[in-house]
Amino acid sequence: MNDPEIRVGDAEREEALRALGDHMSAGRLDIDEYGERTARVAASKTRGDLLELFKDLPAPKPTFIAQPVVQPQAQPVPAMPGPAPPQRWSGSRTALKTYAALIPVVWVLAVMAFFVVKVPFVFLLPVFVMIAGARMWGADWHEERRNQRRHREQWRHNQRRHRGRY
Protein backbone atom coordinates (compact mmCIF):
# COMPACT_ATOMS: atom_id res chain seq x y z
CA MET A 1 0.00 0.00 0.00
CA ASN A 2 2.98 2.37 0.54
CA ASP A 3 4.05 2.15 -3.11
CA PRO A 4 6.14 5.32 -3.74
CA GLU A 5 4.78 5.64 -7.29
CA ILE A 6 1.13 6.11 -6.26
CA ARG A 7 -0.06 9.65 -6.91
CA VAL A 8 -1.13 11.77 -3.95
CA GLY A 9 -4.13 13.98 -3.55
CA ASP A 10 -4.97 17.05 -1.52
CA ALA A 11 -5.72 15.04 1.64
CA GLU A 12 -2.22 13.50 1.65
CA ARG A 13 -0.61 16.89 0.98
CA GLU A 14 -2.55 18.44 3.85
CA GLU A 15 -1.47 15.62 6.16
CA ALA A 16 2.19 16.22 5.17
CA LEU A 17 1.82 19.96 5.77
CA ARG A 18 0.39 19.31 9.26
CA ALA A 19 3.31 16.99 10.03
CA LEU A 20 5.82 19.61 8.82
CA GLY A 21 4.08 22.18 11.01
CA ASP A 22 4.47 19.87 14.01
CA HIS A 23 8.20 19.48 13.27
CA MET A 24 8.66 23.25 12.98
CA SER A 25 6.79 23.75 16.28
CA ALA A 26 9.09 21.22 17.92
CA GLY A 27 12.14 23.14 16.64
CA ARG A 28 13.38 20.47 14.23
CA LEU A 29 12.94 22.78 11.22
CA ASP A 30 13.78 26.45 10.96
CA ILE A 31 11.49 28.81 9.08
CA ASP A 32 13.50 28.73 5.83
CA GLU A 33 13.66 24.94 5.72
CA TYR A 34 9.93 24.75 6.56
CA GLY A 35 9.19 27.11 3.65
CA GLU A 36 11.27 25.00 1.22
CA ARG A 37 9.64 21.75 2.31
CA THR A 38 6.09 23.12 2.18
CA ALA A 39 6.75 24.35 -1.37
CA ARG A 40 7.92 20.85 -2.29
CA VAL A 41 4.83 19.36 -0.64
CA ALA A 42 2.63 21.55 -2.83
CA ALA A 43 4.55 20.42 -5.93
CA SER A 44 4.65 16.73 -4.99
CA LYS A 45 2.97 14.25 -7.31
CA THR A 46 3.67 10.84 -5.71
CA ARG A 47 3.98 9.33 -2.24
CA GLY A 48 7.70 8.95 -2.86
CA ASP A 49 8.01 12.72 -3.31
CA LEU A 50 6.38 13.28 0.09
CA LEU A 51 8.31 10.54 1.90
CA GLU A 52 11.60 12.05 0.63
CA LEU A 53 10.84 15.18 2.66
CA PHE A 54 10.53 13.19 5.90
CA LYS A 55 13.66 10.93 5.61
CA ASP A 56 15.63 12.88 8.22
CA LEU A 57 12.66 13.54 10.55
CA PRO A 58 11.10 11.35 13.26
CA ALA A 59 7.35 10.83 13.60
CA PRO A 60 4.91 12.31 12.75
CA LYS A 61 5.13 11.38 9.09
CA PRO A 62 2.40 11.03 6.48
CA THR A 63 0.68 7.65 6.86
CA PHE A 64 -1.21 7.55 3.54
CA ILE A 65 -4.21 5.87 5.13
CA ALA A 66 -6.91 5.47 2.55
CA GLN A 67 -9.56 8.07 3.23
CA PRO A 68 -13.13 7.08 2.45
CA VAL A 69 -14.39 8.93 -0.56
CA VAL A 70 -17.44 10.91 0.36
CA GLN A 71 -19.67 11.81 -2.51
CA PRO A 72 -21.36 15.16 -2.00
CA GLN A 73 -25.09 14.90 -1.69
CA ALA A 74 -27.07 16.84 -4.23
CA GLN A 75 -28.74 19.70 -2.42
CA PRO A 76 -32.12 20.79 -3.72
CA VAL A 77 -32.01 24.28 -5.10
CA PRO A 78 -34.60 26.41 -3.36
CA ALA A 79 -37.00 28.16 -5.66
CA MET A 80 -36.57 31.86 -6.02
CA PRO A 81 -39.24 33.58 -3.99
CA GLY A 82 -41.62 35.65 -6.01
CA PRO A 83 -42.76 39.07 -4.99
CA ALA A 84 -44.49 39.01 -1.65
CA PRO A 85 -48.20 39.76 -1.78
CA PRO A 86 -49.10 43.08 -0.22
CA GLN A 87 -49.68 42.64 3.48
CA ARG A 88 -52.92 43.86 4.95
CA TRP A 89 -53.44 44.37 8.59
CA SER A 90 -56.21 42.08 9.74
CA GLY A 91 -57.31 43.78 12.89
CA SER A 92 -59.36 42.02 15.49
CA ARG A 93 -62.46 43.31 17.14
CA THR A 94 -60.49 43.73 20.37
CA ALA A 95 -58.06 46.10 18.65
CA LEU A 96 -60.95 48.02 17.14
CA LYS A 97 -62.61 48.34 20.55
CA THR A 98 -59.33 49.48 22.07
CA TYR A 99 -59.03 52.13 19.37
CA ALA A 100 -62.62 53.22 19.96
CA ALA A 101 -61.87 53.63 23.68
CA LEU A 102 -58.67 55.52 22.86
CA ILE A 103 -60.42 58.37 21.02
CA PRO A 104 -62.17 59.91 24.08
CA VAL A 105 -58.97 59.52 26.11
CA VAL A 106 -57.02 61.44 23.47
CA TRP A 107 -59.64 64.20 23.46
CA VAL A 108 -59.44 64.51 27.25
CA LEU A 109 -55.64 64.67 27.04
CA ALA A 110 -55.89 67.34 24.35
CA VAL A 111 -58.15 69.48 26.53
CA MET A 112 -55.76 69.07 29.48
CA ALA A 113 -52.78 69.90 27.27
CA PHE A 114 -54.58 73.01 26.03
CA PHE A 115 -54.90 74.36 29.58
CA VAL A 116 -51.24 73.60 30.32
CA VAL A 117 -49.66 74.72 27.05
CA LYS A 118 -52.27 77.30 25.99
CA VAL A 119 -51.79 76.37 22.31
CA PRO A 120 -54.94 75.54 20.32
CA PHE A 121 -53.03 73.24 17.98
CA VAL A 122 -53.18 70.42 20.57
CA PHE A 123 -56.74 69.80 19.36
CA LEU A 124 -55.27 68.53 16.11
CA LEU A 125 -53.78 65.54 17.96
CA PRO A 126 -57.11 63.71 18.39
CA VAL A 127 -57.94 64.43 14.75
CA PHE A 128 -54.68 62.82 13.63
CA VAL A 129 -55.34 59.82 15.90
CA MET A 130 -58.81 59.42 14.39
CA ILE A 131 -57.46 59.64 10.84
CA ALA A 132 -54.73 57.10 11.59
CA GLY A 133 -57.22 54.74 13.19
CA ALA A 134 -59.60 55.04 10.26
CA ARG A 135 -56.75 54.24 7.88
CA MET A 136 -55.71 51.22 9.94
CA TRP A 137 -59.06 49.74 10.96
CA GLY A 138 -61.72 51.46 8.90
CA ALA A 139 -61.45 49.61 5.59
CA ASP A 140 -61.05 46.23 7.26
CA TRP A 141 -64.04 46.84 9.47
CA HIS A 142 -66.23 47.77 6.50
CA GLU A 143 -64.97 44.81 4.48
CA GLU A 144 -65.67 42.47 7.39
CA ARG A 145 -69.21 43.84 7.66
CA ARG A 146 -69.74 43.34 3.90
CA ASN A 147 -68.49 39.76 4.15
CA GLN A 148 -70.78 39.07 7.08
CA ARG A 149 -73.73 40.48 5.16
CA ARG A 150 -72.84 38.38 2.07
CA HIS A 151 -72.48 35.27 4.22
CA ARG A 152 -75.84 35.89 5.90
CA GLU A 153 -77.55 36.45 2.53
CA GLN A 154 -75.99 33.26 1.14
CA TRP A 155 -77.18 31.31 4.19
CA ARG A 156 -80.73 32.67 3.82
CA HIS A 157 -80.72 31.88 0.11
CA ASN A 158 -79.65 28.28 0.82
CA GLN A 159 -82.31 27.96 3.54
CA ARG A 160 -85.05 29.09 1.13
CA ARG A 161 -83.74 26.88 -1.67
CA HIS A 162 -83.57 23.74 0.44
CA ARG A 163 -86.70 24.34 2.50
CA GLY A 164 -88.60 21.15 2.94
CA ARG A 165 -85.95 18.93 1.32
CA TYR A 166 -84.42 17.62 4.55
From TrEMBL:
DUF1707 domain boundaries: 6-58
Keyword Transmembrane: yes
Stretches of the chain forming a coiled coil according to its record: none
Species, as recorded: Kibdelosporangium phytohabitans
InterPro entries (UniProt xref): DUF1707_SHOCT-like (IPR012551)
Protein origin, superkingdom: Bacteria
Keywords from the named record: Membrane, Transmembrane, Transmembrane helix
Signal peptide: none
Residue ranges, annotated region (Disordered): 145-166
Protein name: DUF1707 domain-containing protein
Bilayer-crossing regions: 98-117, 123-142
Lineage, top ranks: Bacteria, Bacillati, Actinomycetota, Actinomycetes, Pseudonocardiales
Basic residues: compositionally biased ranges: 147-166
